[in-house]
Write a structure and sequence with these properties.
A hairpin with a 5-residue loop joins strand 3 and strand 4 (about 65-70). This protein has helices spanning about 1-10, 120-135, 140-150, 165-175, 205-210, 215-225, 230-235, 240-245, 245-265, 280-285, 290-305, 320-330; strands at about 15, 40, 50-55, 65-70, 110-115, 155-160, 180-185, 190-195, 270-275. It has about 350 residues and is of the alpha+beta class. The protein has a three-stranded antiparallel beta sheet with strand order 5-6-7. Strands 1-2 form a two-stranded antiparallel ribbon.
């Protein structure tokens, strides 16, 4: 506690309280000025010296208390200003994904900001622009990661994209003038996930996600435990084998479940799930209808049984009502039928 507060004084930043999901209900937080820090807060200099109290209450009965005060005239170590102000008007995140250990050359880098109004959004873009121009040593990827992971998201949001620092700054300049960037406002609504059916499979699907995100890899491997040889088929080189229903269906199930778990780990959770064909079973599993073991048994059996059907058929989509299509198929039921609506 002493070390943390000494560093907080030196950095001019109060760190967030760790390991607290919600404040204790036994404390009347509204009655006083005491509160938990749910996120890091700037600790600006004032006419009074920075002071902090540190208390330790040991199980042995030892109670130790100390008051720390910043040394007069002590120079504050520079800290990247990720907000340009207080939490209420800070630079905040929307959505970001970055390759760990990568460079800007690896792809497009997003810088994300948000604010409580459109005018404040432009102002935040201007303040971020001034900050990055004043600190040329800041790495574009580091700036993007900090913007996405250290701020609170407000309703008005914008993203600027660029392959390098110069391109990002140019986009930021445009946004500060009220144009450019990808802009939007959060609206009320609910979220649904749609799981696709057979035909979406391709060799190597999910390979980069598997290598980059342990959550995806763990969920994918969990399916492979129940479907032997699946990983070798999906990440192999035999496209004909993957297109066989026996492998295509469990492969899609594994990728779709792993995608769901990855989004879930990022806090993106749907209110509804729906699926087509094999996607129905993926939706049912993530909704809790089937355990993973039972779902894999059902998916495997479904794929094997469908693989035994005569080959040579085809499926295509028609933009028409079911009645219209059924009328065209009268007398030709042996040749074609409505597979799904």
């Amino acid at each position: 506690g002493v070390i943390k507060m000494v560093l907080a004084m030196r950095q001019g930043m109060l760190p967030a309280t760790l390991h607290v999901d919600e404040p204790s209900s036994r404390i009347e937080w509204q009655a006083g000025e005491v509160r938990l820090l749910s996120e890091a807060v700037s600790w600006p200099e004032s006419e009074h010296a920075r002071r902090a109290g540190v208390s330790s209450f040991g199980l042995s009965g030892t109670n130790a208390h100390v008051i720390l005060e910043a040394a007069p005239g002590e120079e504050i170590a520079p800290v990247p200003d990720r907000s340009g102000g207080s939490v209420e008007d800070g630079v905040v995140p929307w959505v970001i994904s970055a390759r760990s250990g990568g460079s800007v050359e690896d792809g497009v880098v997003p810088w994300v900001i948000s604010a409580r109004s459109r005018e404040a959004l432009r102002a935040q873009a201007a303040r971020l622009l001034a900050h990055v121009e004043a600190h040329p040593e800041l790495d574009a990827l580091d700036v993007g990661l900090s913007l996405a992971t250290t701020r609170t998201a407000f309703e008005h949001r914008a993203v600027v994209l660029g392959k390098d620092r110069a391109a990002l700054i140019a986009e930021l300049e445009t946004l500060a003038c009220g144009e450019g960037g990808v802009q939007g406002v959060v609206s009320e609504g609910r979220t649904a996930f749609l799981f696709s059916g057979q035909g979406a499979q391709r060799l190597g699907m999910g390979r980069e996600l598997y290598e980059a995100f342990p959550v995806f890899a763990e969920a994918f491997d969990a399916v492979c435990v129940h479907v032997g040889g699946l990983r070798d088929v999906v990440f192999g080189a035999d496209a004909e084998a993957l297109d066989c229903t026996e492998w295509a269906q469990p492969a899609l199930f594994a990728v779709e479940v792993a995608l769901f778990r990855l989004l879930e780990s990022w806090g993106v959770r749907p209110d509804f799930v729906v699926g087509h064909s094999i996607g129905e079973l993926a939706a049912a599993h993530v909704a809790g209808v089937f355990s993973l073991e039972d779902a894999c048994a059902l998916v495997g059996a479904r794929g094997r049984l469908m693989q035994q059907l005569p080959g040579g058929g085809a499926m295509f989509a028609v933009e028409a009502s079911e009645d219209e299509v059924a009328a065209l198929l009268e007398g030709r039921e042996a040749e074609a039928s409505v597979a799904a609506v």
